[in-house]
Amino acid sequence: LAGGLNKGFIVTRREMAPKPSYAKGRKSQRNGLIKEVIREVVGFAPYERRMIELLKIGSASTFKRALKLAKKRLGTHKRGKKKRDEM
């Protein structure tokens, strides 16, 4: 009696087409353009403006302070770093 990982009837794996949900969030040319237009029309949030001011000063401490501000507003370190690079 076979048990463990290799138990059961032996079959060949079918190659499935990728799910459409895997493409969610991928930046297409169209979406990039739309985001750009929206950013032009709407402008920056108050915390984003504050970040830009901190980054204009350009010292290491204000660079870190900008990351701290972004982290506080966005929730995670990774999102904060991405936002700081975007600004």
Q: What keywords describe this structure?
A:
87 residues, mainly alpha, 4 helices, 0% strand
Description:
The structure is a single chain. By secondary structure, the chain is mostly helical. 59% of the residues lie in helices and 0% in strands. The protein has 4 helices and no strands. The model has no long low-confidence stretch (mean pLDDT 92).
Secondary structure topology:
Elements: H1 29-42, H2 46-57, H3 60-74, H4 77-86
Please provide a brief summary of the model:
By secondary structure, the protein is mainly alpha-helical. The protein contains four helices and no strands.
Q: What percent of residues adopt helix (DSSP H or I)?
A: 55-70%
Mean pLDDT: 92
Give the number of DSSP strands. 0
Q: Runs with pLDDT <50, length 5+?
A: none
What is the C-alpha radius of gyration, as a whole number of Å?
23 Å
Structural class: mainly alpha
Question: What is the strand content?
Answer: under 5%
